[in-house]
Each structure stands twice: as C-alpha cells, then as structure tokens.
Write a structure and sequence with these properties.
Oligomer: single chain
Number of helices: 10
Structural class: mainly alpha
Largest sheet: none
Mean pLDDT: 89
Number of strands: 0
Shape: globular
Length: 268
C-alpha cells in the first residue's frame, strides 16, 4: 500500500474547521477566536520547522546530532514541568526536579525499547530514537507535572497535618507519605485512563498513523501495545522521581518541613 501524500490544498480544506471554530467563538461570544488563530498558526510553524530539522538529522544520521536533539527536547520538557505548578521551589527547584525526573524516566524507557524490543541498526538510528523519545516525553511530561503540582499544592494545604505528625515524633517521609502517595497516583491516572480506553473507545494516534501509512492493522496494534507499556512505565518513573525529589527539597537535616523554600503566592 503506497502512502497517501498530502498536498497544501488538502491541509487548507481541513483548516476550514478551525475557521468554523472561530466563527462559533465570535457568534457565541466565547472570546477564543484570537487564541485559536494564534495556536493554529504556531502549531503549523512549529511542525513544519520540526519537519525540516528532522529531515536534515535523518539524512546525516550522526549519533551526536541525535543526542543534541534529544537533550534539547528533554530540556524543554523539563521547563514545561517546572512552569505548570502554581507553587515554586526556590532557586530553580521546579526546573531541577522536573528536568531530572523527565530525563531519567525518558532515557531509561527509550533505551529499554531501542535495545530490546525495536532494535534498530544502529541502535541510535534517529528515525527511531527521536520519534520514540518524543512520544515518551509527552506522557512523562504530563505525569510529572501533575504529580509535582499535586505535591507542592498539597503540602501547603496539609501543612498543619504534616507538622502535627512531625511534632508527635514521626519521621519526615512518614509524615509526607499520604501526600506522596496521592501525588504519584494523580500523575499515573491519565495513562491508566488512556490504556483503558485504547482499542474500545479510541484508536490511539500511533496505531492510526501506522495504519494510514499502510502497515498491517495487527502489526500496528503490536506497536501500540509496546508503546502504551513504555508510556505507562515512563510516567510512573517520572511521577515517583519528581515527587520524591521535590519532597526532599522541602526538608532539611533536622527533618523539618521547610515551606520557606517555596516561592508561590500561597505558601502558607
């Protein structure tokens, strides 16, 4: 089956739906038409630019260039994780814990897939490494940001309960156990919901893309199953890592809760 190549006119026809959204925004006075136009334009520019960059990277095939692209992607993802929570750890703490957790989870997950299941030759082939890292990063970023936001917001709300346990002689990690558990759970829920809906409610994007590209549906399903397992594992690793790293930054060698290390508006 030969892949169907899209022409600019085909994309322009699909863009009519964005115009329809804009008309609805104006008619219903939603005030979203400007945001829709900016988001759509930004998306087109970003994806076309990425397409040209990846075309060049794939043609060169250098492991160092591939590494540079991956590091850039991870650094940007770390920034996104840091920016989403309302509360902030001082001294760029959100970025430090977010980037560390995202990098660890993404690289471990991608390396496992590239060296065991997918096995391209060479193993760092950018045709496989970069798309795989990009897919994993999307889920890892979401899980890590939700978990970090939950922990930092929760520790402000539950300050009295945590400090009461500390006053009664509990260790810091014991006093934080409930918040840590709830934060990791929140980080994992989107991936669990995604897995539960796959195949029955929705056809996941990767599987759909491979089918449209001409791959046998059963083979596409195998790839999607592999990717869902990878995304689940990566999200879990990132959520656990970001929560524990943030929790450790909120204490000291005297096992105290140090909310003075937060710079958010409602640190308590």
């Amino acid at each position: 089956m030969t892949p169907i190549l899209l022409r600019p006119g085909d994309i322009a026809i699909a863009a009519v739906l964005i115009l329809l959204d804009g008309v609805l925004s104006v008619a219903l006075q939603l005030g979203l038409h400007r945001q829709l136009a900016i988001a759509a334009g930004r998306m087109v520019v970003q994806l076309v630019l990425v397409g040209f960059i990846l075309r060049a990277v794939f043609a060169i095939g250098s492991p160092w260039l591939t590494l540079a692209v991956v590091v850039t992607m991870v650094a940007i993802a770390g920034r996104e994780v840091a920016a989403r929570p309302e509360q902030r750890l001082g001294r760029f703490g959100n970025y430090a814990v977010g980037a560390s957790a995202v990098a660890m989870a993404t690289l471990l997950t991608a390396m496992l897939a590239l060296t065991t299941a997918i096995r391209p030759h060479p193993w760092y082939d950018p045709h496989y490494a970069i798309p795989l890292v990009g897919i994993v990063l999307g889920n890892v970023l979401n899980g890590a940001s939700l978990a970090l936001d939950s922990l930092l917001g929760g520790v402000v709300r539950e300050r009295a309960a945590v400090e009461a346990q500390l006053a009664l002689g509990a260790s810091y990690m014991h006093a934080m156990r409930g918040l840590i558990r709830a934060s990791v759970r929140r980080g994992l829920l989107p991936t669990i919901n995604q897995m539960a809906a796959a195949g029955i409610i929705t056809l996941p994007g990767i599987m759909t893309g491979q089918i449209l590209a001409g791959m046998d549906p059963l083979e596409a399903a195998k790839y999607q199953i592999l990717l869902m397992f990878l995304l689940s594992g990566g999200s879990g690793l990132a959520a656990v890592a970001v929560v524990y790293l943030a929790a450790w930054r909120l204490t000291d060698d005297r096992q105290r809760l140090r909310l003075d290390r937060l710079t958010g508006k409602h640190r308590g």
